[in-house]
Amino acid sequence: MKFAAIDIGSNAIRFQVSSILDNQKRILFKKLEYVRFPLRLGHDVFATGRISDKSIARFKKLMHAYKLLIELYEVDDYMFCATSAMRESENGKQLVADVKKEFGIEIQIIDGDLEAELVNKAIGSYLTQDTYIHIDVGGGSTELNLFTKGQKISTKSFKIGSVRILEHQDQPQIWADMENWVKENVKREYGKVTAVGTGGNISKIFELASLKPHRLMSLKKIQETKAMIEAHSIEDRIYKLQMNPDRADVIVPASDIYMRVMEWANAKYILVPEVGLKDGMLLHLFEKHVNKTASAFEHQFVNAPQK
After folding, report:
1. What is the pTM of this model?
2. Three-state DSSP class for 250?
3. What is the pLDDT of residues 277-302, one digit of tens each?
């Protein structure tokens, strides 16, 4: 089986095709294609409230290209999800309708709760019975989830993200609301708290910290890495630190979100599993296929002629 996931974010749009390998013990996703295109929808939306005509034209070309890739790879199912920039834009729903009419593509504009739920699917296998605060930082929003004893006990989406901060559209009250939420929900009786970070910026920070895969990264190490990045110009971040141009300017504001949440939660370390929304979408497609197959089998069994 092959599935495609398209994550339409505020900073970039990610496309991935994966084949599914099921050996009965573990489900493996083998990446066949990955394309990340830096169409910064949040730049328009967080400043003006709408997607510009220029971005609309580029967006449609990108959707057409992704549709062709889906057809070329002959995927069994696919999912397009748009997050904060699209859901906050006054012309986002019209753009979704236009894309469906022109290309036959169904784009789902998902809310923060569903976004968090899909990402949670991707990180589930990395968690134990300990207490975790999951921090998922995007371009326009940050989703926080609290886990303890293997269960998610609280979740909240906040209108704070790397692009929004870069555009000076983050509100002091939202920062205060996020701090209050963390301090009210992370209780002393839960014991030691470990952060879990998802999003392209924390993955890049982890890479620059030169840690071994699956190692925990300390809050101190994030602070040191952020200081090292800040000491470089945007140009040097691109050429010396090998960052994409649309990563070079947002990585510092994104790091501020991770660090503040960790400080509020008194989390000294963070786990960076390098998965995100698109991975949760792929799992969702697989689960849908399994459930559909099981239902078809059950229907066939129930309706089989009796001898």
Report:
1. 0.87
2. coil
3. 999 999 999 999 888 766 654 555 44
